[in-house]
Amino acid sequence: xxxxxxxxxxxxxxxxxxxxxxxxxxxxxxxxxxxxxxxxxxxxxxxxxxxxxxxxxxxxxxxxxxxxxxxxxxxxxxxxxxxxxxxxxxxxxxxxxxxxxxxxxxxxxxxxxxxxxxxxxxxxxxxxxxxxxxxxxxxxxxxxxxxxxxxxxxxxxxxxxxxxxxxxxxxxxxxxxxxxxxxxxxxxxxxxxxx
Length: 195
Fold this sequence. Notes:
Blueprint lengths: L3 H11 L1 H31 L4 H26 L8 H16 L6 H11 L8 E6 L2 E10 L3 E5 L5 E5 H6 L2 E3 L8 E3 L12
Antiparallel strand pairs: 1-2, 1-5, 2-3, 2-6, 3-4
Helix pairs in contact: 2-3, 4-5
């Protein structure tokens, strides 16, 4: 029993940096969860979406921060990544592109978090999405991970991808209403009579 304590002490001295880094990663995870989760919940409450919208957002945020923390701990503790280095760099690059590229389905999840925290994007607001000379408009009915449901004045449901809502101009509560979706017509040119 007496030989165990010196072995434990030498192990603690040899792995002090890894233990300190592990403690820092765990503390950072707890702090991010402690301060980030209420902010996501408040954003969902302020937006008047379904009560489970905030819960889903918190679960995804916890999963992503936990995954990043786990990968950091693997690197800190020196798990042999020589064979996995190319795979992990490729995966991180792919994930980064997938979360932010407009053509990617996962960029809709990134846009979901941005829209959830956007104060002008709330349940019941009437919006008009303008894309070149086309438009889509309706009341915001529901926000999901990949798309937003809009309800037109004629009670038709429009499903619009979240990433396109961030990439195109959106009018919130415009003065006039158009017909759900269609083409924008340019106003006629002013009368120019020759004097």
